[in-house]
Amino acid sequence: MARVPASGTLTGWAVGSPGPIGDGPLTRVRRATPSPGPGDLLLAVEACGVCRTDLHLAEGDLSPHRASAIPGHEIVGRVAAVGETVTGFQVGDRAGGAWLRSTCGHCRYCRAGRENLCPASLYTGWDADGGFADIALVPADYAYRLPDDRDAAALAPLLCAGIIGYRALRRSALPSGGRLGIYGFGASAHLAAQVALAEGATVHVLTRSARARELALDLGASSAGGAYDRPPEPLDSAILFAPVGDLVPVALEALDRSGTLAVAGIHLTDIPVLNYQRHLFEERNLRSVTSNTRQDGRDFLDTAARIGIRVTVSPYPLSRADQALRDLAADRVDGAAVLVPA
Fold first, then answer.
1. Tell me, what DSSP letter sits at residue 132?
2. Which of 125, 136, 147, 184 lies in the 20 to 30 Å Cα band around 98?
3. Other beta carbons less than 10 A from residue 173's beta carbon
4. What's the maximum distance between 2 C-alpha atoms anywhere in the chain?
5. Which family does it belong to (predicted)?
6. At how many degrees (to 10) do helices 210-219 and 187-198 cross?
7. If you ran DSSP here, which 8-state letter would residue 277 be given?
8. Phi, psi torsion values for 337, nearest 5 degrees
9. What is the distance of C-alpha 328 from the center of its chain?
């Protein structure tokens, strides 16, 4: 079981000066172990997934919300201490911390069950320190209870890659038995594909990575081609996971009439000019995906357990977090990169 270091010191990585990942924007940090607030869990980190959002934060594609923040929002850990108002968790429990960290609870979006759109929402690794460390604080109300009998590294990618992929799949409005195109095939995509396949969909993967195409076929995709290739049949739905705006018109052209494209990323390069007749006519739909609700998280984790989702993991020691981000940027990661503290 992971334990808080007896030294009382947190060791991890923070975003120093955002910039190209090759220039080393991550810096090693040592800080005093934080104390849990009234509603917090103090976690001894067992594993933390490496998300493309972490790369966007390190490189400055997303403006920093606070200086020298520790990234990482796919946190699996053991509860080492609880705040005084916490119920539902106790010391020794396994818990997960995810991207959505808090919402106001009373705006019209929160009241309507759309807390992912809350204007006051805060995010782990962006607004508060995350899991690229051996210790992390997580608000108990936004934490997930996780099973004890699963490998921590295999659980970590479920907490963002899995949850966001699940929301993107639902936003794509895939009909029962439908034809789904997936553009880009990394951590999130390889999990969303398994949910779609379990629900009876035909899945076509389009990605630049040859290794990712092999993984897609191994997981049950009907075809796997290059990112700009035409799928072998018209698509009812598509999800764009690659942060490449040039692929938006490509995916829209691949849709059948009334098809829907969901763009899953938090960051996207510029979208080229769209032609109404070629890309949007015949009631094709273009949708974005913004964060997730806690209900999305609960629904996905239940689904993942039920279907026995297979998580492909590339583990890295915490000491090599910078290398993990470099490999992610260069498409050298199979499935999901995960940091594991010593």
1. S
2. 184
3. 16
4. 64
5. Belongs to the zinc-containing alcohol dehydrogenase family.
6. 20
7. I
8. -80, 140
9. 13
Counts for the chain of helices (H) and strands (E), in that order? 9, 17
- In the structure encoding, which two tokens stand for residue 15, read together? 């975003």
Q: What are 89's two structure tokens?
A: 């968790």
226-249, pLDDT tens digit by residue? 999 999 999 999 999 999 999 999
**Per-residue pLDDT reduced to its tens digit, 41-97:** 999 999 999 999 999 999 999 999 999 999 999 999 999 999 999 999 999 999 999
Q: Are strands 144-145 and 94-97 parallel, antiparallel or unpaired?
A: antiparallel
Q: List, for residues 1-42, the tens digit of each pLDDT value.
A: 556 655 689 999 999 999 999 999 999 999 999 999 999 999
CA distances from 178 to 237, 241, 278 (A): 8, 19, 22
Among the four given CATH numbers 3.30.420.140, 3.90.180.10, 2.40.30.10, 1.10.287.3510, the one describing domain 9-159+312-340: 3.90.180.10
Residues 6+ apart with CB under 8 A from 169: 180, 192, 195, 196, 239, 262
Encoded tokens for 119 = 């204007």
Sheet (strand 202-206) strand order:
223-225, 202-206, 179-183, 235-240, 255-263, 285-288
> What is the C-alpha separation between 219 and 203, in angstroms, rounded?
10
Average pLDDT, the chain: 96
Please tell me if the domain spanning 9-159+312-340 has the same topology as the one spanning 163-288. Answer: no
Q: Return the bridge partners of 290, or none.
A: none
Helices (H), 9-102: 52-59
Contact between 193 and 216 (Cβ < 8 Å):
yes
pLDDT band at 216 (very low <50, low <70, confident <90, very high): very high
Return the domain boundaries, the chain. 9-159+312-340, 163-288
DSSP string for residues in 281-322: TTT-EEEE-----HHHHHHHHHHHHHHT----EEEEEGGGHH
Between CA 79 and CA 330 the distance in angstroms is 35
